Amino acid sequence: MAIQWYPGHMTSARKKAAETMASIDVVIEVVDARLPEASTNPMVRELRLYRQRPCLKVLNKADLADPLTTRAWIEYYGRQDGVHAVALSCKKPGDVARLPSLCQPLAPHRKDSGKPLRMLIMGIPNVGKSTLMNALLKRRIAKVGDEPAVTKSQQTLQLDVRHWLTDTPGLLWPKIEYPSDGLMLAASNAVGRNAIIDQEVAIFLADLLLARYPAVLAARYGLSVEAADDVDAVQVIEAIARRRGLRMRGGEVDLEKAAKALLQDYRNGVLGRISLETPVTRSVMLAGAPAMAG
Questions:
Q1: Out of 33, 64, 144, 205, which could bridge 59 as a Cys pair, Cβ 3.0 to 4.6 Å?
Q2: Cβ atoms of residues 33 and 61 within 8 Å
Q3: β-strand 26-32 against 117-123: which pairing, if any?
Q4: Which of 262, 205, 214, 138 is nearest to 1 (CA)?
Q5: What's residue 225's pLDDT?
């Protein structure tokens, strides 16, 4: 399934972000720690490199991601020029409060009230930009929701005499190049519901869990770890339906409801700390999986 989702407001939001980029000092790019590269918008990278702006890469939802994998991603981004990476949870005010001080070394010329540090928050939908903005300001300014693309307009606010912050709407890009990226984004609720088929996304997620986190399936759904090699993703969805008593009229298992249950468990962190990609799996994917044609 080729997942593409690019609502009309994103075109104007991209143009506005490009204009704002000229007058800011540091880009705070928020990504999902469970899928840092799949949730990295190539347009953000393109815009900031064009303006030669440094980037604080915020791996948000780190409390939901595999800590060993997150550490590998921090090292990965640490090798990139002009990028500093930090893993945190925007739901923890103490984590968020560190961000201005982390941005400061990236723009050392902006160090006092006469030259306040101007930061621009960017990222795809539903990675926690608005939650981060509210936590930094210590009040509810940006609207927060469980669905992607809640924020649709840009706003700039003053944190204090030394710091200004601009929040942008979540931006996807017109063409998601790799199918697995689209599936990871869909599993993590970063695309609109009208762009996905829950069962196909859940099968992708179940297949990944079988390969990397079979113990998670055993703990949550009573599946045998030993039998993981003999079970496929569809059978996992069927087992979830049977365990939850999800059946259609006539007695057949309800795969649609079971798929939604698996996706919701993953999104809510009920399954534990799971990362959908690592620097190694990303490298293998780029080397072996062709981009979508067209």
A1: 33
A2: yes
A3: parallel
A4: 205
A5: 66
At 91, list the tokens: 């739901």
What length is written for the chain?
A: 294
Question: pTM (2 decimals)?
Answer: 0.87
Within 8 A by CB and 6+ apart from 54, the residues are 25, 26, 27, 48, 82, 83, 84, 106, 107
Q: What would the two tokens of residue 277 be?
A: 């990609």
CA 135, distance to chain mean position in Å, is: 18
Spatial distance between the Cα atoms of 237 and 230, rounded to a whole number of angstroms:
14
Q: Where are the beta strands (DSSP E) in 163-286?
A: 163-167
Could you read off the pLDDT of 51-79 as tens digits, one per residue? Answer: 899 999 999 999 999 999 999 999 999 99
CB-hemisphere CA count at 13 Å for 41?
29
Residue 156 has a CB neighbour count (10 Å cut-off) of 15
The residues near 92 (Cβ < 8 Å, ≥ 6 apart) are 63
